[in-house]
Specification:
about 375 residues; alpha/beta; D-Amino Acid Oxidase, Chain A, domain 2; 2 domains; eight-stranded mixed sheet; 11 helices; about 30% strand; binds flavin-adenine dinucleotide
């Protein structure tokens, strides 16, 4: 079997790339290989599905603005409402150094047109009177363009409108010839010869890169999400609140969704999806109850764990071609913000493959070269 392009991984990132290649170069044959077509353990299906422009790196702000416009246009484009709830992100700082970071990030965000405002403790209190602002030095709030949306809907939109061939199989090896990927070996026993290979395998990205002899510092790291019921919910429209403790919470229907920076954060096995219940009891509930009396009486409803494809170097995406294995493309390491990045990454990687360079957004700061140079692209606003 032969295909111009083979994509390993068919969740949101692989599907976004396949759809975009179809838009730009319909003459190219594209095959997407997915080992688990239920997607039950994919990061995409287990995501908190939120979008923000509150990043420190300009490339991440630009990527999310692109993603926002794409999500908003889904209804006109595909007839699918991705149910974007534009309720904002609220970042809280409780120290002068934290406030300074918010100010610097805010300048980056505003320069790129993001609708983010800084709030004093008094301004915060006026908007969200239920919050305890005693220790707060500064807050930043997305006034529009931030919130949450339907993650699986976005993935299915890409899938339903793409002519790419989709195969249920597993990539188990790569055949290399004259320094490039010449074929993809499948668990079923077959091989697909290809002109370009794209790694979109989520938390397993390092394993796939290793098949081409490439070191990729991406590990599966566990994140547990919880939903809870609140006896007397705070009034008004609530954003995604990021507490200085690292605990976050947002509305989810008539419940709330929450999580935290993990207490300890080792790489886990690819099949480890055991939720860490202790995080709710020991970290999340105490922090939320301190932040708002409304969150004192809450009852956990459900919990699940997903895996970040965690870029150990700088928690940012790795995209683009390998500098030497020039037909091996990365779309990896998204850590906690890959869902909102799927539209822009899909576009960018498709432009590289189909047109030979980035045309819409310059994603070169996210290139693999920084890994080789050991020069992190530090994102100061990670969750
Ligand atoms: C708990 C949690 C909360 C998150 N919250 C947010 C958020 O609020 N906002 C945000 O933007 N992002 C968030 N993220 C991150 C986001 O979900 C991911 O970055 C994004 O979904 C990555 O998509 P992906 O397609 O790269 O990976 P995945 O969705 O994991 O898909 C990779 C696919 O590759 C397949 N695959 C792997 N190896 C092979 C192989 N050898 N052969 C064939 N197929 C293979 C897998 O089966 C899988 O379906 C969160 C993630 C988690 C876990």
């Amino acid at each position: 079997m032969q295909s111009d392009v083979v994509i390993c991984g068919g969740a949101v990132i692989g599907s976004a790339i396949a759809w975009n290649i179809g838009q730009l170069a319909p003459e190219l044959s594209v095959t997407v290989i997915e080992r688990d077509t239920s997607f039950q353990h994919s990061s995409t299906a287990l995501s908190a599905s939120s979008i923000r422009q509150q990043f420190s790196q300009p490339v991440n702000v630009a990527i999310s603005l692109f993603g926002l416009a794409f999500i908003k246009a889904a209804k006109a484009r595909w007839g699918v409402d991705l149910n974007l709830r534009e309720q904002g992100y609220l970042n809280l700082a409780n120290s002068e150094s934290g406030a300074q970071i918010l100010r610097e990030n805010h300048a980056v965000q505003r320069a790129l047109g993001a609708d983010v405002a800084l709030l004093s403790p008094e301004g915060l209190n006026a908007r969200f009177p239920h919050l305890n602002v005693e220790d707060i030095t500064l807050a930043s709030l997305g006034l529009s363009g931030e919130g949450w949306f339907d993650s699986v809907g976005l993935m299915q939109g890409f899938q339903a409108h793409s002519k790419a061939k989709r195969l249920k199989d597993e990539v188990i090896g790569l055949r290399m010839q004259t320094g490039n990927v010449s074929a993809v070996k499948l668990l079923s026993g077959g091989e697909i010869s290809c002109g370009a290979f794209i790694n979109a395998s989520g938390p397993r990205a390092a394993k796939i890169a290793e098949m081409a002899g490439i070191h990729l510092p991406v590990e599966p790291r566990k994140r547990t999400n919880f939903t809870f019921d609140c006896a007397t919910p705070p009034e008004g429209t609530l954003p995604v609140m990021i507490d200085p403790s690292g605990v976050w919470a947002r509305p989810e229907g008539r419940h709330f969704l929450c999580g935290c920076s993990p207490m300890d954060d080792p790489a886990v096995a690819f099949d480890d999806f055991e939720p860490r219940f202790r995080e709710f009891e020991e970290v999340i509930w105490p922090a939320l109850a301190t932040r708002s009396p409304a969150f004192e009486a809450i009852k956990m409803q459900a919990m699940w764990a997903g895996q970040y494809a965690y870029n150990v170097l700088d928690q940012n995406a790795v995209t683009g071609a390998h500098p030497e294995i020039s037909n091996f493309y990365f779309a990896n390491g998204f850590s906690g913000h890959g869902l909102q990045q799927a539209p822009a990454i899909g576009r960018g990687v498709a432009e590289l493959v189909a047109l030979g360079g980035y045309k819409t957004l310059d994603l070169s700061p996210l290139g693999y070269e920084r890994i080789l140079r050991n020069e992190p692209l530090r994102e100061r606003c990670v969750i």
